[in-house]
Specification:
Chain lengths: ~280, ~375, ~300
């Protein structure tokens, strides 16, 4: 593994400073959020003193915790399906030429443009009047998958654009079946794009309010819905407490993952890096 | 953890790991997929587990035997005392699922497309009438609601639902003005307080067509339920002018009032009292020229799967002690006269929550105007787009 | 799912591959998406088109009849009273997209090229703030941007005055939009930059090009798919956003998303809301295709 510092038009030092500043921008509200979870008053913007009673309130708030569980179920399921479906579509749209590509791309963009209220209501009408399905977590998941697909497609397509078909031809010459070349060449090449698309889908699904509102039924309140419902009476800092827990948990996971990756790096070296083929 | 598993975790973070392979990728994804799937399947079946029913108490009827022991309750968040639902569940054995919405408009839009599975909703009075007109509510079986005479007579014959054929009141309040008395630089008694110089650019009015227009109509000395197009045009212009002086049109004024970002806001009574517990300087006033009373009501959507259970719940809420617990917690007005002895004196003694008769006379309910509501809707669109 | 296919004879592999036509392969891969979209996108969109040609009602929110299509909903939507709102939305979305690109590109570049083994860790760090509730984050921004908030205090310390009005003005909405959509720019950019051939950059230096020149001649062209993707994923949803202006905006920051949402809410004019959405969608589609045509087909 080469230790040479890669050259770059932007000096690494300034780049690093920029990176730190942007991370600061990203995390500034998070710091505020965590601080306010210890607020005495029932306010996210008016500090009146230190208290941990919102954490106690959170443990007893079964509705919020159930909503949180629902949100996780929806987000994980929707991400998996949206990533799978969107990735396949992105492969098809980048690697093959066929009529109707423009039409397909239009569909993708329509799902991006359509305002959430409109999409929510139209899906609700579809579920209730056309498909006659019961509203619940299932309909929420179906809706989330629908609007997440477009994001995955756009991200994976960007990763795969101007894909070099000679790689696949070379593999075929060497005796690979289409499936093998797909799994050993195309998929690893696309992997960072798929990963990025999946993370994006997860984020979008976690926070969705409007579409979720219209397509949810009894027992399927998600956390964003619960929180927006609190708007009328003031959002309580126990939600800040919940978010703080989520953050802690994510950081712990991240630290574990990071530690593993450093260990794995120390073990082996010299494997072919598929991404370098790009 | 065995070696391959540790490596597949590493993959997630480090694509340059030499142990990266599609096998580990696939395995990780398959595992995650199965986990997600099972979680999703497991959740949707968790409704409707009923506990055993208890014997009846004197103020209760036994749950209807043909309905499942489930109640799907759709309410505003936090609009309930901690023990209201648990006590109902223990007494009747009916399991309550509790979901939330945050605006009448959204509730209405959702109900309009068809049966959504809820048994009990809590629309505000004007929306009770809208939903009635749109055939979205079921008439109540009043024989199951024996506690109905606990209600204050004012709510038994109200304009929006005379005789309570479709709705039972939950809590009521008024829509007046919340303000920081130390910073507004003057006394606030009426809607013209928006003109106080210190308040310029630091005020707000509600993002609700009828509430905003009511403010304008009261200020101009007209009936807030009028259909006179001349008066409505005046009100529209009043609001467009007012828009130039305010900071925002919002129903989310609580935190800004608390923190001083807003000094004056058109606000719901109970909200302001809740703010007061954290900021003593914030006061509420019922404007002299008049203000709307509003009532949130329990109602049963058309096609509800468990309407009889819903009526049982309504009857339960009308019990004096239950109603009092509710009011003591949310600090709005209780429509339940029989509950008064159990309500905190600080609430019943507060003329802003329990106004005397002469003030009450100037606090009409919002009348629904049926098709003619378009006169307000279209002008509201103009105000918001101006 | 394990892959243990034995190696087939070489000749068979070649024949098998040539026999399946391109369009069939493409369509087969697209089958799941096609089925999905057919039910959950095409039909709902058709519903909206039908609504846009219907008449608003009291019992039914929309009366639709084939014989009596109401085209006036479209002319109502084109009323000039909405034009300033629409232009403002395009403005806010464009400025936010630009800010996202300026903030996001160097960060994505740094992670891709200097992130080392911890690249994916940094990437996840970008996402972590967004695992918390959106509403709470917006309240946090209210706290930062309010009159006696953090930003004003910091500016006061530096001597830039501490009485600025951010909250409920356009600056707050733009900050909110930029903040909310930043990952949508960073992630596709990262995926594209990560793929760039580093040796090209070194070659450019070896050939004597300077930093700026290398950036515009080598880096930008190779990463343009990611940039285009990022621009699309920020600009398009940002135009129709209505939650951010509702939480951070004021009376003079109304965006078209709010106007459309209102039609389904306070104004109860569903046909008008539907026709506005269709017009917005068509406008953006035309704009996007023009943009992609200019930027280059390979970005599609």
């Amino acid at each position: 593994m080469s230790k040479k510092q890669p050259k770059s038009p932007l000096r690494p030092r300034y780049l690093k400073l920029h990176a730190i500043l942007v991370f600061a921008f990203l995390f500034a509200p998070i710091v505020v959020l965590v601080v306010f979870s210890f607020n005495k008053a029932k306010s996210g913007t008016d500090w009146t003193g230190f208290s941990t009673h919102w954490y106690h309130a959170l443990i007893h708030n079964h509705d919020a915790l159930q909503a949180f569980r629902n949100t996780l179920k929806v987000a994980i399921t929707a991400t998996i399906f949206a990533t799978a479906i969107g990735t396949l579509a992105a492969f098809a749209l980048t690697r093959f030429r066929f009529r109707g590509r423009a039409g397909y791309n239009s569909l993708i963009f329509i799902s991006l443009v359509m305002p959430e209220v409109v999409m929510g209501i139209s899906l609700l009408v579809f579920f209730v009047k056309f498909a006659h399905t019961r509203l619940g977590l299932e309909t929420v998941i179906l809706s989330h998958i629908t609007f997440c697909i477009a994001f995955v497609v756009v991200v994976v397509k960007a990763r795969l654009s101007s894909f070099d078909d000679r790689l696949v031809e070379a593999a075929a010459d060497l005796g690979a079946t289409p499936i093998q070349s797909f799994l050993r060449i195309v998929l690893p090449l696309a992997a960072p794009g798929i990963f990025a698309g999946a993370m994006l889908a997860f984020t979008i699904s976690l926070d969705d309010v409007v579409i979720t509102f219209f397509t949810s039924g009894p027992g399927s309140t998600t956390l964003p819905l619960y929180i927006f419902g609190e708007l009328r009476f003031g959002v309580s800092p126990s939600i800040n407490a919940l978010s703080t827990f989520v953050l802690l948990f994510s950081f712990v996971l991240l630290a574990i993952g990071g530690a593993f990756s450093v260990r794995a790096a120390r073990r082996g070296a010299g494997a072919i890096d598929a991404t370098a083929l790009g | 953890m065995s070696e391959p598993d540790r490596v597949s975790l590493a993959f997630i973070w480090d694509t340059e790991s030499p142990h990266f392979s599609r096998r580990t990728f696939m395995r990780t994804m398959a595992f995650a997929g199965a986990a997600g799937f099972m979680a999703a399947c497991g959740s949707s079946g968790s409704n409707g587990a009923s506990s055993s029913s208890s014997g009846s108490s004197t103020s209760f009827r036994l749950p209807n035997k043909t309905e499942a022991k489930v109640l799907n309750f759709y309410n505003w968040t936090d609009y309930i005392a901690d023990d209201t639902i648990p006590n109902f569940q223990t007494e009747t054995g009916i399991k309550v699922t509790y979901d939330n919405y945050n605006s009448n408009d959204e509730l209405f839009a959702k109900m309009r497309t068809g049966n959504t599975g809820y048994d009990l909703i809590v629309p505000t009075d004007a929306f009770v009438v809208k939903m009635k007109h749109a055939n979205l509510l079921q008439p109540l079986d009043l024989s199951l609601i024996t506690n109905i005479d606990n209600l204050d007579p004012r709510f038994r014959h109200a304009d929006y639902d005379p005789g309570n054929l479709y709705s039972i009141p939950w809590q009521w309040g008024t829509t007046g003005i919340g303000f920081d008395q130390t910073k507004v630089g003057g006394t606030v008694t009426d809607w013209d307080a928006f003109n106080l110089p210190a308040v310029n650019g630091k005020s707000s009015f509600l993002d609700e067509a009828r509430d905003a227009f009511a403010m304008a109509l009261f200020a101009l000395g007209h009936d807030p339920n009028t259909l006179d197009s001349g008066q409505l045009d005046d009100a529209q212009n009043y609001l467009i002018d007012l828009k130039k002086k305010v900071k925002s049109i919002t129903s989310d004024y609580q935190d800004p009032l608390k923190s001083g970002e807003l000094l004056l806001a058109q606000a719901y009574s109970g909200d302001v009292f809740q703010i007061q517990t954290d900021n003593k300087n914030v006061q509420y006033v019922i404007p002299k020229s008049g203000a709307f009373s509003w009532v949130d009501n329990m109602a049963i959507p058309m096609g509800a799967p468990h309407p009889r259970n819903a009526e049982l719940f309504m009857n339960y809420i009308l019990e004096p002690k239950v109603g009092a617990a509710l009011t003591n917690f949310v600090q709005y007005g209780s429509p339940n006269k029989a509950a008064e002895p159990y309500i905190d004196k600080s609430i019943t003694g507060n003329p802003l929550i329990y106004p005397p008769a002469d003030v009450l006379a100037k606090l009409p309910f919002q009348k629904d105007l049926g098709e003619d509501e378009i006169a307000y809707d279209d002008r509201w669109d103009k105000v918001k787009s101006a | 799912m394990s892959v243990a296919a034995p190696d087939p004879p070489v000749r068979e592999a070649r024949t098998r591959r040539r026999n399946m036509p391109e369009w069939l392969k493409g369509n087969l891969l697209l089958l799941p998406t096609s089925v999905w979209f057919a039910f959950l996108l095409v039909i709902p969109t058709a519903i909206i088109v039908a609504y846009s040609l219907g008449k608003r009602g009291i019992i039914e929110p929309v009366h639709f009849s084939w014989g009596h299509l109401i085209w006036s909903n479209y002319s109502d939507a084109l009323n000039t009273i909405y034009l300033p709102i629409f232009i403002r939305s395009v403005e806010y979305a464009a400025i936010s997209t630009l800010l996202c690109a300026l903030l996001g590109f160097p960060l994505a570049y740094w992670i891709a090229r200097f992130g080392g083994r911890l690249r994916n860790v940094y990437l996840v760090l970008v996402i972590i703030p967004f695992l918390t509730s959106y509403l709470i984050r917006m309240y946090a921004w209210q706290f930062i941007l309010q009159r006696n908030g953090l930003l004003n205090r910091v500016l006061g310390h530096i001597g830039l005055g501490s009485n600025h009005e951010f909250l409920n003005h356009s600056s707050a909405v733009i900050i909110g939009l930029t903040y909310g959509f930043l990952p949508f720019m960073i992630l596709p950019l990262y995926a594209s930059i990560e793929r760039m051939d580093k040796s090209l950059v070194e070659a450019s230096y070896d050939l004597g090009h300077g930093k700026i020149s290398t950036f515009f001649r080598v880096i930008l062209p190779s990463t343009s798919p990611g940039l285009v993707a990022g621009v699309l994923l920020v600009f398009i949803p940002a135009i129709g956003d209505f939650v951010t202006p509702e939480l951070l905006g004021g009376v003079r920051t109304q965006m078209i998303g709010t106007t459309i949402a209102d039609q389904f809410g306070g104004t109860q004019n569903w046909p008008l809301g539907a026709s506005m959405s269709i017009l917005l969608t068509m406008f953006i589609l035309v704009g996007v295709f023009l943009y992609l045509w200019r930027v280059g087909e390979e970005a599609l």
